[in-house]
Amino acid sequence: MSMASESMPANSPPAPQSSAHPFAWSVRRELWEHRSIYIAPLVVAGLVLFGFLVRVIHLQQTMKMLGMLKPQELHLALAMPFGISAVAIGITGLIVAFFYCLGALYNERRDRSILFWKSLPVSNTTVVLSKAAIPFLVLPAALFVTITATQLIMLALGSAALAATHMDATILWSSWPLFKMSLVLIYGLVAMTLWYAPIYGWVLLVSSWARSKAILWAVLPPLGLCLAERIALDSSYLWSLLDYRLNGYLHEAFYFPPHPHGHEIGDPLALLALTPEKFLVAPGLWLGLVFGVGCLAGAVWLRRSREAI
Amino acid sequence: MACIEAHGLRKSFGSTKALDGVDLKVEGGRILGLIGPNGAGKSTLLNAVLGLIPYDGDLKVLGQDPWQARDRLMRDVCFIADVAVLPRWMRVWQALDYVAGVHPRFDRTKAEGFLARTQIKKKSKVRELSKGMVTQLHLALIMAIDAKLLVLDEPTLGLDLLFRKQFYDTLLNDYFDHSRTIVVTTHQVEEIQQILTDMMFINRGRIVLNCSMEDFEARYTELTVRPENAATARTLKPIGERQVLGRSVMLFDGAEREKLAALGDTRTPSIADLFVAVMTDKTGQTQGVVP
After folding, report:
1. CB–CB contact B74 A121 (8 Å)
2. How confident is the model at residue B288 (pLDDT cuts 50, 70, 90)?
3. A1 neighbourhood in chain B, CB within 8 Å
4. Does residue B42 contact residue B202 with C-beta atoms inside 8 Å?
5. Per the CB < 8 Å rule, is A116 touching B86?
6. Residue B290: pLDDT over 60
7. Are the C-beta atoms of residues B49 and B183 closer than 8 Å to each other?
8. Average pLDDT of chain B?
9. Which residues of A touch B75 (CB under 8 A)?
10. How far is B42 from A309, CA to CA, in rounded Å?
11. What order do you get walking across the sheet with B56-61 strand by strand?
12. Which of A166, A274, B22, B113 pairs as cysteine with B9 (C-beta 3.0–4.6 A)?
């Protein structure tokens, strides 16, 4: 599925202008159409910052409360807003990715614009891959930038407030070591994207196939199968499979020590250990990726023959 | 190499035969009008040519199999399939950017030149444009592509007369030259009669008539018969007869014009009248409706 072979078949004469970049322009096209890809995370980041600002303004009160904590709890309390910002923006990204995938290959058939897209020399593979690039590449990158920038602003705001009240600002930077945590963030985002690949793939497949109500086709069949299994066999194997896919990523990619060691006070990583060695050998990861790639191949095949609805 | 060449082209949707063995050859540099009643198979034929649907039989467009190589073929083929398929969320400048970005044969300066003649603003979204303006925009994009084949499927449906006239004038004056081929379907046959070089009637998935406009003019004669000559004229076996203001107007296939001129006024028929004559059987019912 290489782009080069798509855009430059060996047997056709060279184009008069060789500046056509169907893949890059198709991705840009997606960003034009779906501005929520970057706006939604930014809005949530704005809300997080607003909440943080309110907290900082009431610094006296906050510090009074923080002052009563033990050092370990203090670090945790200081790190908490940063963790929350990452989780909130990350979950927003997941929701955006889900709804993006749902409409990606459905809307163009619904508004008949597929007839325009298909009148251009862009292959179905390029189109589907450019749409898949949004949840697989663009969104994780956007989330990384948004989260890191948000946390940087939070650190700056917090430091300024602490400095204004003649307190030691370094405690904040040691509670949330930004550089180290952004590496953790990259790991987390990459692991999350790979883990959810089969979900993105499935929703894109449904999006290329459904003639109406794509959301129901995406959600109900898996739930229906779980229910059928429950009724027919009185087992919940499928349900646990689904549950594992939705929540298993945290357990495979990270380890949450139940009792953080005392000497690691001040390091949020004491609460959150990375386990790439466990993640990379999890059969669930690789089976999921195979399923996701299969779904994308199916979506390419369907886009070729599906007509406007 | 013919621009479009088909042998035994078939396509069924369930039990409906949309294309029932179509043979056709369209040479380069022609403007072909594809004419037929609703459901005759026009759009199916064009969709097959454009690589939008699979089919049975043999079909080559510019030497390529459209179903196998749609994306490659679309460098040399443009189409306006139906009106209003431009994405409504898109802005005019985005459409220009995108087509320029993906199409190696798109001349942006040319497209902007065409747009400059219209009221269309680059910042407008497609949904803010009138139907006529959307068509103008689409046409500006298409005409700036140096393509060998342009396919138009009802390109002016729902447009007012001024836009329709302007559409074909622009196409003919600013786009068509004898290295390009245009295939067009429309129900407003009379509006394109003057620009066609060839015409093809299609009905129930089959080609009913296929001829060049020169042949059409040489072959068919319309006679407005003087009442006293009506019986004589009927013995010459007209393929169609209708009443206009109390006088019989008959359509002849291959009759000598001099002979007919003695019976009344002769002229070249309109494609629309020939269409009605060919599609209507002797009982006066249209074949397209009767199963």
Report:
1. yes
2. very low
3. none
4. yes
5. yes
6. no
7. yes
8. 88
9. 12, 15, 121
10. 19
11. B16-26, B4-13, B56-61
12. B22
Q: Which two tokens stand for residue A107?
A: 């809307």
Count of all residues that appear for chain A in the document: 309
Which candidate, A35, A48, A50, A38, places its Cα nearest to that of A93? A38
CA-to-CA distance for A306 and A286, rounded, in angstroms? 30
**Residues A270 and A234 sit within 8 Å (Cβ to Cβ):** no
- Chain B nearest-CA distance from A47, in A, is 28
Cα(A300)–Cα(A127) distance, integer angstroms:
8
- Of A41, A49, A43, nearest to A141 by C-alpha is A41
**How many CB atoms neighbour CB A137 within 10 A?**
12
pLDDT per residue over A237-272, tens digit each? 899 999 999 888 888 888 887 765 554 555 666 677
pTM above 0.90, yes or no: no
Q: Cα separation of A31 and A83, whole Å?
A: 28
What's residue A8's pLDDT? 40
Cβ atoms B222, B273 nearer than 8 A: yes
Asked if A118 and B88 come within 8 Å (Cβ–Cβ), the reply is: no
Residue A1 has pLDDT above 60, yes or no: no
Give the mean model confidence (pLDDT) for residues A211-216: 92
Q: What is the mean pLDDT of chain A?
A: 86
Residues A46-63, mean pLDDT to the nearest whole number = 84
To the nearest whole percent, how much of chain B has pLDDT over 90? 51
Which of A 137-176 lie inside 8 A of B, CB atoms?
A: none
The Cα–Cα gap between A26 and A204 comes to 16
Distance (Å) from the alpha carbon of B196 to chain A's nearest alpha carbon: 23
Cβ–Cβ gap B87/A108 under 8 Å:
yes
Q: How many helices (H) and strands (E) does chain B have?
A: 11, 13
Q: Which residues pair with A304 in a beta bridge?
A: none
Contacts of B94 (CB under 8 A, 6+ apart): A29, A32
Residues B113-140, mean pLDDT to the nearest whole number: 92
Residue B207: name the closest of B45, B29, B31 by CA.
Answer: B45
Bridge partner list, B220: B253
CB atoms A119 and B50 under 8 Å: yes
Length in residues, chain B: 291
User: Residue B91: beta bridge partners?
Assistant: B125
Determine the residue type at A66. L
Quick check: B153 and B185 in contact, CB under 8 A?
yes
Q: Please tell me the predicted confidence (pLDDT) of residue B291.
A: 35
Question: How many angstroms separate the CA atoms of A294 and A128, rounded?
Answer: 12
The number of beta carbons lying within 10 Å of the beta carbon of residue B7 is 13
DSSP string, B162-192: HHHHHHHHHIIIII--TT-EEEEE-S-HHHH
Q: Does B82 touch chain A (CB under 8 A)?
A: yes
DSSP-based three-state secondary structure for A250: helix
The average pLDDT across B254-283 equals 82
